[in-house]
Amino acid sequence: MIKKLSSVLLLAGMLAGTTMTSTLSFAQGKADKLGWKLGAQAYTFNRFTLAQALDKMDSVGVQYVECYNGQTIGNGIEGKFDWRMDAAKQAQVKALLKAKKKKLVAYGVVSPASEQEWEEVFKFAKAMGIQVITAEPKREHWDAVSRLCDKYQIKVAIHDHPKPSHYWHPDSVLVAIKGRSKLFGACADIGHWVRSGMEPVECIKQLKGHVLHLHFKDLNEKSPDAHDVIWGNGVCNMPAVLAELKAQNFKGMFSVEYEYNWDNSVPDVKECVKFWWQEVGKL
Question: Signal sequence: where (predicted)?
């Protein structure tokens, strides 16, 4: 009887694994067709080195990376990740990413102080193979940023921190990018919109055709003090956001940015990743 029960449980586990693998494969096919990538903003693991963060990304099943300024690199590489890294340090970081089987897609959020600094940031992004710079540019730099986007063929996605940030509302992003490069658009942080009292789906609609990148998160409540929760358990209406992005033919990366339970967020992030794949499979 015990042997029979063990066999049943083993078979159930095998079937569950097969079903999960099949579901993931189906969702991956959909994501590829949509041009969607799921990655993580390294800030999710800012209590750890970049090397450790890459390992944590591996454990939750994401391969695409958005780095940020100031994270200790680790793995025997001195210093912090920053656009000011020299060529030798850049080569070390690229080797680290390759060894960890991760692809650096995005970088930010940055706010360079001058047009010269903007040029240096773009040169750095080009050297590192970065496709998207998430940023909050100063008004006087909008034209320069647009020109540099075209020159280097790198996207700049304006990020929305909550009120009183200049870019908290989609209208301010639209003003900044109007009449400028098609590579100059929005980084939609849907959680910050909720903190500012707005509905993510409506904000995505306002930015139709201009969303280049996302900081994806779900929150426990609609308030400035809200905190992250496992995706699908909060108030951000993620299925509707995904449906709207599909309708707009969005192509790009979703960065997991989980800013809660900092020291032990891997189990939560893993559930977020699972939710994303399940929802993509339904589209």
Answer: 1-27
For residue 80, what are the β-bridge partners? 72
Q: Where do we find the tokens 């099943």?
A: 61
Alpha helix (H) ranges present in the chain? 2-34, 50-60, 87-99, 115-128, 142-152, 170-177, 190-195, 200-206, 238-247, 266-282
What distance in Å separates the CA atoms of residue 13 and residue 190, rounded to the nearest whole number? Answer: 36
pTM: 0.92
- Whether 67 and 81 have beta carbons less than 8 Å apart is answered as yes
CATH number at residue 88: 3.20.20.150
Domain membership flag for residue 229: yes
Condensed to tens digits (0 to 9), the pLDDT of residues 166-218 reads: 999 999 999 999 999 999 999 999 999 999 999 999 999 999 999 999 999 99
Rounded Cα–Cα distance for residues 39 and 105 (Å): 9
Closest by Cα among 212, 200, 210 to 251: 212
Count of domains forming the chain:
1
- What are 187's strand-pairing partners? 159, 213
| 34-63 per-position pLDDT tens digit | 999 999 999 999 999 999 999 999 999 999
